[in-house]
Amino acid sequence: MLAERFRPSDVESLVRIAGTLAHSPSADELPPPYRELAQRVHAKIVAEATGRRSPAASALLGPRPGEQVWMLRIWTRHENTTAPYATKDAALAELAAHVRGNWDNVGGQGDVPEDPPAEDAEAIDLYYGPDGDAVPDQGYELYPEEIRRQQRSRTVPLNFRFPDNAAAEALNRRTVFYAADDDGPGCSEVAGVLVFGYLDAKDGAVRVSVHTDSADPECVVRPDGTVPLRVVVDGTVVFDDSNHHAPHPPVLEQLLDAADPEQAAVLCSVAVSAGLMWSCPRCQWPNPRAAKRCARPGCGRKAKAATVDSQAAILPMPTLALEGS
Q1: What is the pLDDT of residues 171-195, one digit of tens each?
Q2: Which DSSP category does 5 fall into?
Q3: The pairing of beta strand 321-322 with beta strand 58-61
Q4: Peptide bond into 247 cis (omega under 30)
Q5: Could you say which DSSP state residue 58 is in?
Q6: How far apart are CA 269 and CA 250, in angstroms?
Q7: From CA 81, how far away is CA 317, in angstroms rounded?
Q8: Is the four-CA dihedral 92, 97, 102, 107 of positive or negative sign?
Q9: pTM here?
Q10: Any idea what the Cα angle at residue 160 is, between residues 159 and 164, rounded to 5°?
């Protein structure tokens, strides 16, 4: 999204500029959706100026931590290379292949056998020696490192609702397909989610990769920054977190379990506002969204079908600022 290329303060300024110009002659030249959006911003600015500030509907979510890889550095008298590997075992397998390819340097010397052993760790230890200096001018380093993605924040809705049938159909019809080129494989894009499907010659498999960093926060991004996904292969569901509401129920439960009474009250208020819990109309006891009756002993009032949605729409929406590292 274009907004991701600007700082939050810049986006705020651009929104206020749009609201200020909403009723100017130049606004008449805008497409109707843009003009209507500018008028909504203008109404918010006027309400804020009169002290009737609207409840927050979104939060600024910081970037997630990067993924860890294993860096393997190998040096000899003639070369010095460093490469990343997804796992430590993969890096050690590459290192073992290197020492087997150069076994003539040590084979038959001292206690080292003429041929390298089949075990990777044993081959590496025999080649480099217990102190790592058995072969002059040769050595290696193996260490973990975090891959840091571009440090940016994203705006996410606090009152997340997945698109209904009509909205989902409209988004599906706007799916864009990108052909493969020199920069990468082909993919499709729907609601900002990129789905790649291609032949991975290195791994000898058909690879499917889903990228959610550019997902549309107004449609498919939950308050914890994740996107609900269900992956189906030949009719079999192989991955599914689509039934969770962000923050994922286990996360909310863990927070409530670790919170003191004051903290728990704040968490429950936020959860009710976001539609993750509902407050009993009779006793105000906070209940999980899926609960059909109030769980407070002695109450047991049955929840009405619209209770959760109505409370999430009416209650003031708290502003959450989640900072990334």
Answers
A1: 999 998 988 888 788 899 999 899 9
A2: G
A3: parallel
A4: yes
A5: E
A6: 17
A7: 53
A8: positive
A9: 0.38
A10: 125
